[in-house]
């Protein structure tokens, strides 16, 4: 019989042996599954797991309201679910460049589509321009500001001690359009240091809506969607590059992405875009 001093050692080794046996059993049970997944052993290799069945859409923030409605209609018709990420086109393009698994990119300008196309990150021949928009000057709904947009107009005076909300003019399409318009009109130098720079156009809209900025420059569709602001004036179309929304499939687009792109040009989508204030353009693929 083991002495009292030896009993703890015997108990330790018994437990260790039991643990080893149990561990070996788990490893043996798991080995066939691992071998099948790796294509090794006597069992046939398991087929590669498909990517998630739905589609991932990256789209400019100004499209969020319209696309929420259109995505729902597309899923109802096709059974293909759509997940959407809305942000500045610049941010989304950089994320795609970094490897984000987007299937469709819907930009608020041509520059960021060009950026991805030049890096071979889009499906050749899938690019098409779908929409147009207007650029507007907005104020909080209860503001008494009145302005006519014309060369040299007194935007700085209208701001008073307040700020002008815009999307970042260094990268975000809405901000770039705003800077182009104000430069063409000869007033950019007088307000460029008065900006409330926003990460995207919807954030600029929110700055004005809650009174954090005296005035703002956004798309006409954004102003239409926000009852807390009013349109002071519309920028003439010849003061800035045409506001266009190109769509393209990414180079890694999953099956169903082309159906989604085609649906964006359908009568159902067209009705929603028009109701939301967009201008629907010729939606055929762009010639190469």
Structural features, described:
With 288 residues, the chain is α/β, with parallel strands linked by helices. The chain has 2 domains: 55-132 and 244-280, Periplasmic binding protein-like II (D-Maltodextrin-Binding Protein, domain 2, 3-Layer(aba) Sandwich), CATH 3.40.190.10; 135-239, 3-Layer(aba) Sandwich (D-Maltodextrin-Binding Protein, domain 2). The chain is built from 11 helices and 11 strands. It has helices at residues 7-38, 64-78, 89-97, 110-118, 155-159, 173-184, 188-191, 201-209, 220-225, 257-263, 267-275; strands at 55-60, 82-87, 104-106, 128-132, 135-140, 164-167, 195-198, 215-219, 229-234, 244-249, 279-280. The strands form 2 sheets. It has a 6-stranded mixed β-sheet. Strands 7-6-8-5-9 form a 5-stranded mixed β-sheet, with helices on both faces. Strand 1 (55-60), helix 2 (64-78) and strand 2 form a beta-alpha-beta unit. Helix 2 (64-78) packs antiparallel against helix 11 and helix 3 runs parallel beside helix 4 (110-118). The longest helix is centred in the N-terminal third of the chain and has 32 residues, at 7-38. The radius of gyration is 28 Å and the shape is elongated. The model is unreliable at 1-52 (pLDDT under 50).
Task: Explain briefly what this protein structure is.
This protein has 288 residues and is an alpha/beta fold. The chain is built from 11 helices and 11 strands. It folds into 2 domains: 115 residues, Periplasmic binding protein-like II (D-Maltodextrin-Binding Protein, domain 2, 3-Layer(aba) Sandwich); 105 residues, D-Maltodextrin-Binding Protein, domain 2 (3-Layer(aba) Sandwich), CATH 3.40.190.
């Amino acid at each position: 019989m083991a002495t009292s001093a030896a009993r703890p050692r015997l108990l330790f080794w018994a437990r260790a042996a039991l643990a080893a046996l149990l561990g070996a059993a788990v490893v043996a049970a798991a080995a066939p599954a691992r071998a099948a997944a790796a294509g090794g052993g006597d069992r046939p290799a398991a087929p590669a797991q498909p990517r998630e069945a739905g589609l991932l859409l990256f789209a400019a923030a100004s499209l969020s309201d319209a696309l929420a409605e259109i995505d729902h209609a597309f899923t109802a018709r096709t059974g293909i679910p759509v997940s959407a990420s809305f942000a500045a086109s610049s941010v989304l393009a950089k994320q795609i460049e970094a490897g984000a698994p987007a299937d469709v990119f819907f930009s608020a300008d041509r520059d960021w589509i060009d950026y991805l196309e030049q890096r071979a990150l889009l499906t050749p021949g899938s690019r098409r321009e779908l929409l147009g928009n207007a650029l507007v000057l907005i104020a909080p709904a209860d503001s008494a500001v009145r302005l006519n947009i014309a060369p040299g107009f007194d935007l700085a005076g209208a701001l008073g001690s307040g700020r002008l909300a815009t999307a970042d003019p260094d990268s975000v399409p809405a901000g770039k359009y705003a800077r182009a318009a104000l430069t063409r009109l000869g007033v950019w130098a007088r307000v460029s240091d008065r900006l409330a720079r926003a990460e995207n156009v919807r954030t600029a809209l929110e700055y004005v809506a809650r009174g954090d900025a005296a005035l703002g420059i956004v798309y006409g569709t954004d102003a239409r969607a926000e009852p807390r602001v009013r349109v002071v004036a519309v920028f003439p179309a010849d003061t800035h590059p045409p506001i266009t929304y190109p769509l393209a499939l990414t180079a890694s687009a999953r099956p169903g992405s082309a159906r989604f792109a085609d649906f964006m040009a359908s009568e159902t989508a067209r009705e929603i875009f028009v109701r939301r204030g967009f201008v629907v353009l010729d939606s055929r693929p762009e010639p190469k």
